[in-house]
Design a protein that fits this description.
Layout lengths: L10 E10 L5 E10 L5 E10 L2 E14 L4 E9 L7 E13 L2 E13 L5 E12 L7
Antiparallel strand pairs: 1-2, 2-5, 3-4, 3-6, 6-7, 7-8
Length: about 140
């Protein structure tokens, strides 16, 4: 008998907006997340854990939904106070999703470039998935 290997949910992620919070080093980012599967997907939470591009975990209440092939917009307040010209490697947007009645983590690896106006811009480099609890850790 062969083992069943789940491919996991597939998405694309693109920054669609970024606005500075008045009087702070935090930015409100918006990413368009497209569900590339043939099943609906529910977005439960998100976080950005990098020291130079970070946010606390944000639980979406209510959760965000994307039907098969459709988009959801994830908004996250992110702290980033790097100088113009800086490049942050291996930033991440980590999403907790529910797909096919199972929870998954989706890791969106970002390259963050600080433009000449001091504004952070993200570019998606790689997206990977991991089923929650696959290793016995929740």
């Amino acid at each position: 008998m062969s083992a069943v290997i789940e491919d996991g949910p597939k998405i694309s992620a693109e920054q669609v907006r970024r606005n500075r919070e008045v009087g702070s080093d935090r930015w409100l980012f918006g990413w368009r997340i497209q569900n590339l599967t043939e099943q609906p997907m529910k977005f439960l939470a998100g976080r950005c854990p990098h020291g130079q591009f970070r946010s606390a975990e944000r639980f979406f209440d209510p959760s965000l939904h994307a039907a098969a092939g459709k988009n959801a917009t994830i908004e996250m307040p992110v702290l980033c106070d790097e100088p113009a010209g800086a490049v942050i490697e291996n930033g991440f947007l980590i999403l907790l999703v529910e797909w096919l009645d199972k929870q998954w983590r989706i890791f969106v690896r970002l390259r963050v470039t600080i433009n000449q106006q001091g504004e952070p811009e993200t570019a998606t480099e790689l997206i990977t998935t991991q089923r929650v609890g696959f290793s016995g850790v929740g």
